[in-house]
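Justification of resources, computational component.

The compute hours requested in this renewal are based largely on the per-chain cost of generating structure records like the one below. Each record pairs the submitted sequence with a full structure-token output. That output is archived, and it is also reused by downstream analysis tasks.
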Amino acid sequence: MNELLYKYKKSPITYSVIGICIVVYVVSVLMYGIEMSAYEGLTFGGYNPLLVAFGGDYYRLITANFIHFGLLHIVVNCYSMLGLGVFIENTLSRVEYIIILGVSALFTTLLPFVLFLINGFEANVVSGGISGVIFGLIGSLGALALCYKDVFMTVFKQLAPNVTMMLVISFIVPSISLSGHVSGMIGGFVATYIILKLKRKQKNLYEDLLN
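The structure output for this chain reads:
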């Protein structure tokens, strides 16, 4: 118990996100059972572009990130979130980490929604899960590796085979949203890259003022 409390204090945001996902999943199990159908996912806040565009259900752009359709779905996602999230949370500031999570979550559904508005992309899709945010953290790590290299590049290279496998699975398994994964990764990369560039600019400005 003390060890868990210690881990939570070191990475409260990551553990809180995982906790929210677990609580939401437990509620869904009580309502629908261990596995949720697409229709049940819709009633539980899953993302569908038609309901967002014509039903005004804009909350789905966020709530979809926290629902999971089955036990394997949530176990794999929470495990992945724990490994990547703790690392990124302890690398950046808490505020920066929250921004990256928020942007990744929004990009996961927002970019596919924009594509739907343009050409009807994935009109009948029902999606959910924190995996888009996980891919956002992968994008964040990519931005860190690009800007600072060294240890971050080493970690990114170690993760590259897993990322490739996850993308391949996204292609093969129809129920997994490839667009959500890619969009989340773009969001995490862009948010982190901008944050790092602003930090570097502020540091240079501060050094100029001292000189």
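The chain is about 80% helix and 0% strand. The mean pLDDT is 86.
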